[in-house]
TrEMBL record:
Name of the protein this chain belongs to: Cadherin-15
GO cellular component terms given for this protein: adherens junction; catenin complex; cell surface
Main location class: membrane
GO biological process, one term: cell migration
Residues covered by the Cadherin domain: 12-118, 119-226, 236-341, 342-449
Length: 735
């Protein structure tokens, strides 16, 4: 078998890239003619597709389908589209593809049709004054839309205008602006405005301009200086904290900056520190003020030496200059001054009960105006109890009436009065002095026993103690501690009683032997701690009670509970009896009116409302069945045990007959009450509950109003219909 030789690969049709200049004005313009290698007898049909043909932007390119010539139909802009990539097709007349599609690339050649553009219209930079040459502070930059690979986009920078002095240079390639020479002085020129140019074609093409603004930053290269060497001022004596005047300075540095802010110092002429000087933050001037009150009689003028300098030091390299100095002359004007109480307040003491006319003190003032002859007079400005009298010329204070203690006009044992001193100048001035008089306590009251009665368990030890207390109208140190003793006139008391100290105001009375129950009167001796001490004999009236297991008085508890029971059952009897009486009279007054049938028992359960919220649903306390069937609940019969009572034994009695009228019902209630009161084995659980006080007054009427009027004309029974179904029968009868 023969080996086959290398196959010849047929070259596909290839169209090289076509270049066309942007802004080409001769339209239409032949770009290229394409031709297929496969010619058909009937000819070849050519077509192109892609951006600029059938895609946006449409209609830029076209082709003659028979000759294959490609035409440019519109001007091109490289900055919008720098190249177009199309596809070329070759078909026979029947529409069958003769060759594979090939690429047709059209390259747009750049022209210098765009000026450079700065990124901003105004560039801002800052540099400190006095900066060395070559100090750079900012960079300007521009862009060019032309082809960056051509000279059309190569930019160069230059300074067109910067004023008379050429203080700055610019790097032509980078656009960086730097100082060109020394001598930048903010006080001479604080701002520089430069005109910057950018040109393409390496500086020979199209140009554009922008503005560069350079600010000089301040440094402390100028010390402050006084506007003049001497300043004169005046101030009134006794003025404190007031401003006397200003000293004016000037600083060339930037106003409001730390390099401008001045600091003042008083160097000479004020050894006592009567003046102070501060800087006005707005004007930078020195403000002289009075630090201590001035006295014309002591010194009537001052001559101060004041210096000024910056808060911060001068910049290094700035020539040193002597510190600025100025002389300030201050004259102190004489004014009328008010009198002065040298000792204010004046504190004195007076014994309690001092008689009228007793000298208290001489309270006088002095006049600071030694260069003027003036007379002072005195008056009582404040004497709330009218206890004092004052000599208007000498200032001597005496008592007008006896000073008593205690008094509503005393504050902690002190009486406060105000004295007014006035000179006779025009206009007159006055001063107020405070006179504090301590009313010295005199031990003139013995202590009193508080309380003077009590109850004590008659068994020694637990429960057999009573806490005693005492009060004293005198103030310390003439009051507590108090001393409690059994009367020394009855030494036999010490066999049954003892008194021990509890604290400074109380003692404990203790039972030493078991004592019978009953009332007792025990004489006691009470003594205070005053000088000299006061004492009093006083009777302590108390009761000795029967002691329970816990050392408490059982009799007192039962008595209180029994009293509560009586009130509760008594109120029940009044309500029930009044209702029966009212119904009975109605029946007598209306013999032909509606009558109560035997089967209609208008009596209902008596509700217990001794706990809030019970209402008509709570019917456990009293059952009217006890009234309907007394033979079952009579004291002579064995009553069922109550849930709230402890177990107890009772002797069953003979049953009693059914009550025939209201009087027998009342007797039944009274008998039950007597049994409950005489039963010593259980507490009275059916008594009224004792609640806390909830205020006075009630919207309900008193119980006595039930029987306050018994005539038809005085009674209005329409309200019974509002009381619910239980009172509906009464409402029908009497409403």
């Amino acid at each position: 078998r023969q080996h086959e030789g290398p196959r010849r690969v047929k070259r596909a049709w290839v169209i090289p890239p076509i270049s066309v200049s942007e802004n080409h004005k001769r339209i239409p313009h032949l770009l290229v003619q394409i031709k297929s290698d496969k010619q058909q007898p009937g000819g070849v049909i050519y077509s192109i597709k892609g951006p600029g043909v059938d895609e946006e932007p449409l209609g830029i390119f076209s082709i003659d389908k028979f000759s294959g010539k490609v035409f440019l139909n519109a001007m091109l802009d490289r900055e919008e589209n720098d190249r177009f990539r199309l596809k070329a097709f070759a078909l026979d007349l029947g529409g069958v593809t003769l060759e594979d599609p090939t690429d047709l690339e059209i390259i747009v050649v750049d022209q210098n049709d765009n000026r450079p553009l700065f990124r901003q219209d105004v560039f801002t930079g800052r540099v400190v004054e006095g900066a060395e040459p070559g100090t750079c502070m900012m960079t300007v930059d521009a862009t060019d839309a032309d082809d960056p690979d051509t000279d059309n986009a190569v930019l160069r920078y230059s300074l067109l205008e910067q004023g008379a002095a050429t203080m700055f240079t610019i790097n032509a390639t980078t656009g960086e602006i730097c100082t060109a020479r020394p001598g930048l002085d903010r006080e001479t020129a604080g701002v520089y405005n430069l005109t910057v140019q950018a040109a393409d074609m390496s500086g020979d093409g199209l140009t554009t301009t922008a503005t560069a603004v350079i600010y000089l930053e301040d440094i402390n290269d100028n010390p402050p200086e006084f506007t003049k060497d001497e300043f004169s001022m005046e101030v009134e004596e006794r003025a404190d904290g007031v401003d006397v005047g200003k000293v004016f300075v000037h600083d060339k540095d930037l106003a409001g900056s730390p390099n401008w802010l001045a600091k003042f110092t008083i160097l000479e002429g004020d050894p006592e520190g009567a003046f102070a000087i501060r800087t006005d933050p707005y004007t930078n001037d020195g403000v002289l003020s009075v630090a201590k009150p001035l006295d014309h009689e002591v010194r009537d003028r001052f001559e101060l030496t004041v210096s000024v300098q910056n808060e911060g030091p001068l910049e290094p390299g700035v020539p040193a200059s002597p510190r600025a100095l100025a002389t300030v002359r201050v004259r102190v004007r004489d004014v009328n001054e008010a009198p002065v109480f040298r000792e204010n307040p004046r504190r004195v003491s007076v014994l309690e009960g001092a008689p009228p006319g007793t000298s208290v003190t001489t309270f006088t003032a002095s006049d600071p105006d030694t260069h003027q002859v003036q007379t002072l007079s005195y008056a009582l400005l404040y004497d709330p109890a009218d206890w004092l009298q004052l000599d208007p010329h000498s200032g001597t204070v005496r008592t007008k009436r006896e000073l008593l203690h205690p008094s509503a006009f005393l504050q902690g044992g002190w009486y406060i009065a105000l004295i007014l001193a006035r000179d006779d100048a025009e206009p007159p001035l006055s001063a107020t002095g405070t006179l504090s008089i301590e009313i010295l306590e005199v031990n003139d009251h013995p202590p009193s026993l508080q309380p003077t009665a009590g109850v004590v368990c008659g068994r020694p030890g637990r429960g057999g103690n009573l806490l005693l207390g005492a009060t004293d109208e005198d103030r310390p140190p003439h009051g507590a501690p108090f001393h409690f003793h059994l009367s020394p006139q009855h030494p036999q008391l010490a066999r049954n009683w003892s008194i021990t100290r509890f604290n400074v105001t109380h003692a404990v009375l203790a039972v030493l032997v078991e004592l019978p129950e009953g009332p007792y009167s025990l004489p006691l001796l009470l003594r205070d701690s005053g000088t000299p001490p006061q004492e009093r004999q006083q009777l302590l009236n108390f009761s000795v009670c029967h002691c329970g297991r816990e050392g408490t008085c059982e009799d007192g508890v039962l008595a209180a509970a029994t009293a509560g029971a009586g009130v509760t059952l008594g109120a029940l009897m009044i309500i029930l009896g009044s209702t029966i009486l009212l119904l009975g009279e109605r029946h007598l007054d209306h013999p032909h009116g509606p009558s109560i049938l035997p089967g209609d028992d208008v009596r209902d359960n008596i509700l217990n409302y001794d706990e809030q919220g019970g209402g008509e649903e709570d019917q456990d306390a009293y059952d009217i069945n006890q009234l309907r069937h007394p033979e079952l609940f009579s004291p002579r019969a064995k009553a069922p045990l109550r849930r709230d009572a402890p177990l107890s034994s009772a002797t069953p009695l003979a049953p009693r007959k059914l009550p025939s009228g209201p009087s027998e019902i009342e007797d039944f209630i009274n008998e039950g009450l007597e049994v409950a009161d005489s039963d010593p084995s259980v507490p009275p659980y059916d008594t009224a509950l004792i609640y806390d006080y909830e205020g006075s007054g009630s919207v309900a009427s008193p119980l006595s109003s039930i029987v306050s009027s018994l005539t038809d004309e005085d009674q209005d029974y329409d309200y019974l219909s509002e009381w619910g179904p239980r009172f509906r029968r009464l409402a029908d009868l009497y409403g």
